[in-house]
Structure formats: structure tokens, C-alpha cells
Amino acid sequence: MSEVTVVIPNWNGARLIGPLLGRLRSQTHPIEEILLVDNGSTDKSVEAARSEGARVVEMGRNAGFSPAVNRGIKEARTAWVAVINNDVEPAPDWLEQLMNAGQRPRVWYAAGKLLSQSRRDALDGTFDTLCRGACAWRAGQDRRDGPLWGSARRVRFVPFTATLFRKELFHKIGFLDERFESYLEDVDFCLRCAMHGYSGLYVPEAVAWHAGSATLGRWHKDVVRRISRNQLLLVAKHYPVRSLVRYSWSILVAQLLWGLVALRHGRGLSYLRGKAEGLWMFRGARRSQRKQMHPRRLARILEQSEAEMFKLQRRSGFDLYWRLYFLLTCLS
């Protein structure tokens, strides 16, 4: 039986640790080690984790999600690593279902169905999709669970919320880009995987319930700022000049529409700060990745992902943002 380490990035989640570790101990697939990477918590997180038998790695400061996950993966001594947020409630067979999927040929990672903790019949999300404008959509988010989300499928983009990986993949692709800190770091990683031909599997039988943004909240000013910045970092890292020209209208529409959403939630200033940070970091991010840019490969990945996004939005009901995006970019 394949051995697996579970990595939990944590910051001030003491109230969440006990319930999560209890559910992990009850998994039908054995876990070699539970590793909590603590981002300088000021509550009782470290004590709670150790009292429940987890190994704790202390970062000493709030370094962010990406550095914490990277440290946990490097510390893991098994061939498989499962990354799970501290606000996730996995079903007893969650890990078993993912591990079974991982044994299939050419499966480098596997992600299950995330349901909402507050609305148990509603989806928090499944896999991710990415549009040409460098904005991502977690497929199924806020929809009622149903047959559309009940079939396994090959996927390119998965969230790091509750996902299983072959550790070898990180040695092939590299670790999470720590410039992202939090948000869209998983999209960046999966885009790198896709560019090198590595993909995963969506496993709807692997069910977990997710509170969602339990640390800061979905529309916290720092969340909006980081997402706004990291959208531009995706463009800087992966879009060669030819793609920038080809998708310029889609990028402009996607970014401006997202700014209007942020403004509607009272976060217009955070959006602008994020874009300013992204522009300031743009040249450095672009220079570091210039040799790895492949316009034809990127075009194929983006256009296939956007086509899938459109199909799922049409079948499940368009969000206003995506309705406007597709309406404005349909001729581009």
C-alpha cells in the first residue's frame, strides 16, 4: 500500500486543528505522517497539533501559504503528499478514493469534490478552469451538487485546498512560486504542469466539506490585493509577446470586470493596490520565465480550458461576471 504524508498549512487555526486531525486519523487509507506547517501562529495551534500527534514544523513568521506548503512537501518522506487546508472536513474515504485514482496511468495529482460546510448540498468547487484573460473559475462554485459534477475526468487545474500529489512532480516542475504568497499559486503550478504535459484526475467520490476563506474571509482586503496582483504575475510568467498581443482584449476585459466585482464588495482600493504591485513585479517575473514560454502550447491550454469553462457555465447557469466576459470577448 502506497505511503502518504498529509501536509496542513496553518495560521491561527487552533480551533480547527483538533477536528481535522480527528478526521484524518479516521481515514480508511493509512497515513504515514501528519505534518502541520505553522506560519507563526499566535494562538494555541502548535500545542493543539502536537497534542493530537502531528509533527509540527514552525516557520517562525507568517510566510504565506506557498512557503508553508513548499516546506511541508520538502519535509515529507513519502512518495505521495496530500495538501489539505485546516478548514476542510474530509469524508472517511476521501484519501482512499484519491489514492486509488493516483494508481491510474499518467495521473500526477488527484482532487475530489468540495462541498460547502454551511450549505451541505452546495458545491464549494471541484477543479479549476482558466480563461485567456488570466482569471480563474473554480468549476461548480456555489452551485447545487448534481450529475454535472458527478463524473470523473482528466483535468489540468486543481486547487491546493484538498489534493493529492506525487512528490516526484515537484522535483520535475518545481515548487509553488513563493512570490504569489497565497491565491492563484495553484493555478500557476498547474499551468506549469500542463505546459510540460502533466495532468491529474477529478475524483467526485473523494468528498470533503470546506468552510472557505476561514482565515481572512473571501473579500478581505489582503485577499483581493493578492488575487489582483497574482493575475498579473500569471500573465508575466506565462504569456509570451505573441500571446500578449493575441489575448490583449481578453486580458483587459477579464481584469477590468474583476475590478468591478472588487469595487462592488467595497475593495476597489485593494484591487488597485494589487495591480500596482503586479506591475512593479512584472518585469522580474517575466525575465525569470522568458525561456520557458511556448505560445502555441499556451494557446492550446488556455483555449481548451476556456471552452470547458463556457460549457460548464452554460449548463449550470452563467455567473454575471462570466456572462459579461464571454459576451465581450466572443469576437476576439
- Level of helix content? 40-55%
- Give the biggest sheet: 10 strands, mixed
- N- to C-terminal separation? 50 Å
Query: With helices defined by DSSP (H or I, 4 residues minimum), what is the helix count?
Result: 12
Describe the structure.
The chain has 332 residues and is of the alpha/beta class. Helix content is 46%, strand content 18%. It has helices at residues 14-25, 45-51, 65-75, 94-102, 167-173, 185-195, 221-238, 241-246, 248-264, 268-289, 295-316, 320-329, and strands spanning 4-10, 33-38, 55-58, 80-84, 88-90, 109-116, 123-125, 128-130, 136-138, 153-155, 162-166, 200-210. Helix 1 (14-25) packs parallel to helix 2, helix 7 runs parallel beside helix 10 (268-289) and helix 9 (248-264) packs antiparallel against helix 10. The N and C termini lie far apart (50 Å).
Keywords:
alpha/beta, two-stranded antiparallel sheet, 12 strands, globular
Please render the helix and strand layout as text.
Layout: E1 4-10, H1 14-25, E2 33-38, H2 45-51, E3 55-58, H3 65-75, E4 80-84, E5 88-90, H4 94-102, E6 109-116, E7 123-125, E8 128-130, E9 136-138, E10 153-155, E11 162-166, H5 167-173, H6 185-195, E12 200-210, H7 221-238, H8 241-246, H9 248-264, H10 268-289, H11 295-316, H12 320-329
Parallel strand pairs: 1-2, 1-4, 2-3, 6-12
Antiparallel strand pairs: 4-11, 5-12, 6-7, 6-11, 8-9, 10-12
